[in-house]
Amino acid sequence: GSTHSDTQIEGFVPAPGGPIQNVEYYQSVSSGYFNTLRIRLLDGRFFDARDGPGAPEVAIINQTMARTFWGNDSAVGRRIRPSGTTNWCTVVGVIADAKNGGLEKPTGTELYVPFAQDAGRGRSQRMSIAIRSSGDPAAMVNAVRKELARLDPTLPLARVRTLEDLVSAAQSRPQLLTLLLTLFGSVAMVLATVGVYGVISYSVARQSKEFGVRMALGAQRGDILGIVLGRGMLLAVIGIGIGLVGAVILTRFLSAMLFGVTPTDPITFIVVSLLLGFVAFLASYLPALR
């Protein structure tokens, strides 16, 4: 697969600032490719025996491409002239988006053509074979090697991997970044918790003489606790507010490393704020209680 910027789409007129006639991922596949990888058909049909050499040329596109160039209208029956070809091909199906360009990248426009119609163009310098097994996939490797050798002994079979291995390899860098960020975030949270508790409890402890004078003048137990909690929580609210503003600004620099959450994820901010507020409450209440 690769980018093809000279693909032509019949009837499409690029608008200033809008999408251009571009296919970000081009792939030549056999008729069983989509069922093997369990890619859903959203409109039209898959490739079949009708789409052989000499038959009218056809293509299948992904949902992103259909929406990009035809919006909510059906893309089935539209015509596309892929890069490097002179013939127009008709869209016969629209499939659900698949992550061919990488898990961390947004899904781009993707065009699939039948290998039976594309093999003669000299595009393919290598081929990937996808096999679905009901048992252990690794147990099928020797059988696949023997079958390939029977067809053509000169063809090499390399980089045999399961789909789980491919997904794991694609996730290795985000997983490492997530582990490091979680570790640093946990350390920062512990330091913040200990720091908040230590500062506020020390401040309250220093006011013990003041509390004694107030109680000698008639202040009740509840009055003293109210004063202490009021001061401590005021400091906590101010600190949390400043911290939230700083977090909103700084987390934008981490947006490229986030998956499944936004830089201003409200649940994270609420949970952390409540935790620090609770720590500030304990740091004020326990020393005042003593």
The computed structural class is alpha/beta
Oligomer: single chain
Tell me the series of helices and strands, N- to C-terminal: EEHEEHEEEHHHHHH
- Report on the biggest sheet: 7 strands, mixed
Count, helices: 8
**Strand percentage, roughly?**
5-15%
Question: Any idea what the radius of gyration is?
Answer: 31 Å
Give the overall shape. elongated
Mean pLDDT comes to: 82
First-to-last CA distance? 70 Å
Instruction: Give the helix proportion (percent range).
Output: 40-55%
Segments where pLDDT lies below 50 for 5+ residues? none
Report the count of strand segments: 7
Descriptors:
about 290 residues, alpha/beta, elongated
Descriptive notes:
- The protein has 290 residues and is of the alpha/beta class.
- The chain has eight helices and seven strands.
- The chain has helices at 33-36, 63-70, 115-118, 141-151, 163-205, 208-216, 221-250, 266-289; strands at residues 8-9, 25-29, 41-44, 58-62, 79-81, 89-95, 110-114.
- Strands 1, 2, 3, 4, 5, 6 and 7 form a seven-stranded mixed sheet that branches.
- The protein starts with 7 loop residues before the first strand and ends with a helix.
- The model has no long low-confidence stretch (mean pLDDT 82).
Summarize the structure.
With 290 residues, the chain is an alpha/beta fold. It has eight helices and seven strands; from the N terminus they run ββαββαβββαααααα. α7 runs antiparallel to α8.
Topology (elements, then pairings):
Elements: E1 8-9, E2 25-29, H1 33-36, E3 41-44, E4 58-62, H2 63-70, E5 79-81, E6 89-95, E7 110-114, H3 115-118, H4 141-151, H5 163-205, H6 208-216, H7 221-250, H8 266-289
Parallel strand pairs: 2-7, 4-6
Antiparallel strand pairs: 1-5, 3-6, 4-7, 5-6
Helix pairs in contact: 5-8, 7-8
